[in-house]
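quick one before i forget lol
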Amino acid sequence: MSAGKLTKKRNFRAKAALPGFGLTIGITLSYVALLVLIPLAALVWKTSHLSASDFWAAISSPRALSAYKLSFGGAAVAAFVNLFLGTIFAWTLARYRFVGRAFIDALVDLPLALPTAVAGITLTTLYAPNGLFGSWLEPLGIKVAFAPLGVIAAMVFVGIPFVVRTVEPLLLSLDPQTEEAAAVLGASRWRTFRLVLLPALWPALLTGFALAFARAVGEYGSVVFISGNMPFATEIVPLLIVTQLEQYQVEQATALALVMLTGSFLTLLVVNLLQLRMRRESSRG
């Protein structure tokens, strides 16, 4: 290394705004250990008090299987709905300027700031049989409050900001002239979206879907009010965990929590692997 480059490197280190690698990696690892690794290790340790047969009985009971179906199935449906609606919202906010845009942009973040209990009470009030929307839907045979559809509605509400805020920055970074060029060459809107926009948006869409799914799986406050909490019908896994804790069945509750943790982690892992594969393919191309 030449003397000039060595001097520049030393000057950069001297003027760096953040401390060196040793201190920053120490702070990072301490944070991860205290707030992530140690609590997760405690969860596994507490679950290990159960025998293999008791563990299997706790996580495979008919009530638990019904709760898994609603929690994971409802979260998947809500994530797909958010993927569709969130992409449209992000497109509208990124590509158009209109009166009230700032207000709508602020409303997108409302589920992140609003207490989930308030959201649950509001949704229940609107979709109850005597509510503003429920009074119109019930005669049509559409039951939202105290039904699985209400659980999905609450999950959609809390998850949509993650898709919008993940996709919108990428849309803002894309040059509209690329789409105009495709249109000039005779491509239809669907073909332009499929061949020009979708390849660039895939990483953001996958990330938004994963975040919305993970948020919905762990949702409690907004769902617990609108679901009605009926076992084998509208009971979610977080509620079942709370119920078992209230009955002092701590090990059984941690076993269910471990299943939820594993499911969420595997979902995020698959999404990250898909993103890594897509980046490698795009770099090769």
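fyi The radius of gyration is 24 Å.
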